[in-house]
Amino acid sequence: MKTFFNTIGNLFRKPVTTKYPFEPTFKPDDYRGLIGFEESLCIWCRRCEAVCPPGAIVFSQDMEGKQTYHFNRAVCIYCGECVRACPREGALFQTAEPAPCALKAENINNGWNKLFDEAIESRERYAAEKKKKAAEKAAADKAAAEAKKTMEGDEGMNPGNN
Ligand code: SF4
Ligand code: SF4
Predict the structure, then answer these.
(1) Closest ligand 1 atom number to CA of residue 77
(2) How far away, in angstroms, is 35 Cα from ligand 2 center?
(3) Quick check: CB of 82 below 6 Å from ligand 1?
(4) Domains in the chain, CATH or no CATH each
(5) Helix (H/G/I), strand (E/B), else coil: 87
(6) Block means of pLDDT (10 residues each) for the chain, length 162 residues?
């Protein structure tokens, strides 16, 4: 009898399901959607990249030292760790926008793995070049200091040359 009344009662209740995709589904206030990036506020510390569990953020670097942010929405697990780790408010933020589906044509996994490796390599190249230039400068400074010292020594031995 109870089942009978439940069944009759359900005929007059609102459905608990939604007509997705024709109607948007319920989104809580703290819904974690796509990660947004505001380049003008970024200080390029790469903390977001370091804390990202699946590696959905990576920065590449050109030979002038300029960094570029890359984000993969299909790798992201929308945990918000990057936003919490970012020291610059507004540089990274979580939007309420759901991530669009990844399409096969985007080659989103293999393409991302390649981009990720290349980004790391670009930084290594830049760091190696920077180190090389610093070593060259240190050697040049040392040579100049030694030449100056030698010249001062020569002048000290021949004061009449002035
Ligand atoms: S939300 Fe999580 S998974 Fe997505 S980019 Fe940020 S740290 Fe990585
Ligand atoms: S943590 Fe914030 S400031 Fe640092 S690189 Fe990422 S977005 Fe930029």
Answers:
(1) 3
(2) 12
(3) yes
(4) 27-150 (3.30.70.20)
(5) coil
(6) 86 85 84 96 98 97 98 95 97 93 87 96 98 96 92 72 45
* 80 ligand 1 Cβ < 6 A: yes
> pTM for the complete prediction?
0.80
Find all residues with CB under 8 Å of 138, minimum gap 6, and list them. none
Predicted local confidence at residue 158, as pLDDT: 65
* CA–CA distance, 84 with 81 (Å, rounded to integer): 5
Is residue 92 lining ligand 1, measured as CB closer than 6 Å?
Answer: no
Question: Which spans in the chain are helix H?
Answer: 2-10, 47-51, 81-85, 108-157
Strand partners, 59: 69
The verdict on the CB of residue 75 being under 6 Å from ligand 1 is no
Pull the structure tokens for residue 63: 């030979």
Q: What is the pLDDT of residue 108?
A: 87
Evaluate: CB of 58 within 6 angstroms of ligand 2: no
Inter-CA distances, 137 with 42, 105, 142, Å: 30, 48, 8
For ligand 1, pick from 73, 82, 84, 95 the residue to mutate: most ligand atoms within 8 Å of CB: 82
